[in-house]
Amino acid sequence: MNPLIAKETKVLIVDDQVLAKGYMKYSLEELGFSDITYVDKVHLALNKIRHQRYDLIVCSYNLKHEQDGYYFYDEINRNGELPLSTAFVFISADTTADLVQSIVELQPDDFLAKPFTVKELDRRLSRILGRKRALQSVYWCIEKKHFPKALSEVELFLSKPKNSEFFPLALKIKGEILQSCGHYPQAKVFYQAILNVQKFTWAQLGLVKTFLHLNEDEAAEKLVLRLAFKPESQLAAYDLLMSLQIKHGDFDTALECVLMASEISPRNIRRHKTVLDLSRITHDYHTQFEAAKKIVKFAKNSIHDMPEHYLNVARAGIDYAMTSDDEQTQTLVKQANEYIRQFRQAFPKAEMQDQINVINARLMYLADEKDNAKSLLEQLDNEHWENETIEALLDKAKAFHEIGLHSRSQEMLLEIVRRCAESNQSSEIFLRYAEQEQVEKSRIKQSSKELNNSAVQRFQQGDIDNALHTFSDAFTLMPKNPSIALNLLQVITIKRLHGDDTYQKTIRRCVRTVETGPLNDEQESRYTKIRELLDDIV
């Protein structure tokens, strides 16, 4: 270790194990480090980095207090609280596949497996700190968002042969700066030139992003599909594929992509939130419910933990129950109540009674206590919406729609859309979902719970025209429900509309839902007869 670098390096150690801290202190002092700060909790580490700049942060991946190192790193990195010129190193005795995949996704400067020797620590830190120092002027420009100046600095860096050991990293940074400057045609040429020499994964991913910005979607898809089969680029490839499908409005495929990414790296809460939003816009109530539960699971005891996560599970469970049979509804209601209990236990001082009352009103509606639900909702403070979160307003809009107060529901949905359009915090997917809710609830007055029963009743009474209309509405809100899809297919064939071009897309969607969902024996028999009529078009 260069003694001058060690002396000038300000170090923060985040570890809650006394022996580990003792060994790290000994090792760093052996290497000449003297300006060292130790903390054992994440909130203390956050306080330190928000008041002091550090050159090196060494963090245990397996912190037990509050949250682990994964969420700490993710938090400061996403919030821009980890300067590019600061080196971040994880240490852990765990080297399982899940941990390795998490490290691949987070991309810290290094990862040290315990136990390690002073010699190994010396070798790793010398390399990392040397790299940070060599590129310091570039990093500072990027941190200040002076991208044209950063581009000049990286070009100067690349012109000096003495920096050759850092050229691959400098080239990667150059590509990122070109994109940050909006120089996409230039970035495309740059990445293609790099790939003609060596097939760096970062250059391929950079080229995909450039293609997307240049609307060269076919080229982007072709390249990113190849990257999705490589372990080192799978996660980034699935995320890019998701972005591409969202751009094309194919939310079902986008959801499939983000679900595959979530299986590979299950601890990424932001990705679960994307699953939640995409499952809502595709009316995939089961996936929505599971995503909401995973957000609670992985955020628990971390700085990401918050009361609304628990309420969102209850809300998602109710949405799911609205589309389910009686037996499943009872199970979902129990789970919704369990998450409310967990919320009260985890956040006993949280003042969210109005939101709990809305959830209770929706539970009453599920139990066919519509009048009681209406009475409870009328007791709410419906004037001061500025203090309501978007999720709380959305749940209230659903509750008012379910009990038949449609104009009140539309007012709230309009407010949600307005807020989403004006806020940088709301995702594009959520805005589109809110707009979709506004349109669907304006057109379809019945709730999901009422639609299928109403359609079946009309069908049994011989009112085929109205049955067709109601089953169509039910399938709009419940496109993953095989029973509704089958009923709609049956009415379409009875009306002899299966040869009508305007119904071909609906028929294909129904067939896909029926063939991927569970059917009982009676439904299987019905579908076999219907399918014989459809074989010429499907």
Automatic annotation (TrEMBL):
In terms of InterPro entries, this protein maps to: Bact_response_regulator, CheY-like_superfamily, Sig_transdc_resp-reg_receiver, TPR-like_helical_dom_sf, TPR_rpt
Q: Sorted alphabetically, which Pfam families does this protein's record hold?
A: Response_reg (PF00072)
| Any single biological process term in GO | phosphorelay signal transduction system
Give start and end residues of every TPR repeat: 448-481
What are the TM regions of this chain, as residue ranges? Answer: none
Q: Where is the Response regulatory domain positioned along the sequence?
A: 10-129
**Keyword set for this entry?**
Phosphoprotein, TPR repeat
**PROSITE patterns (alphabetical):** RESPONSE_REGULATORY (PS50110), TPR (PS50005)
Statement: the UniProt record of this protein carries the keyword Phosphoprotein: yes
Signal peptide annotation: none
Q: What is this protein called?
A: Response regulator receiver protein
The organism encoding this protein is Paraglaciecola polaris LMG 21857
Upper lineage is: Bacteria, Pseudomonadati, Pseudomonadota, Gammaproteobacteria, Alteromonadales
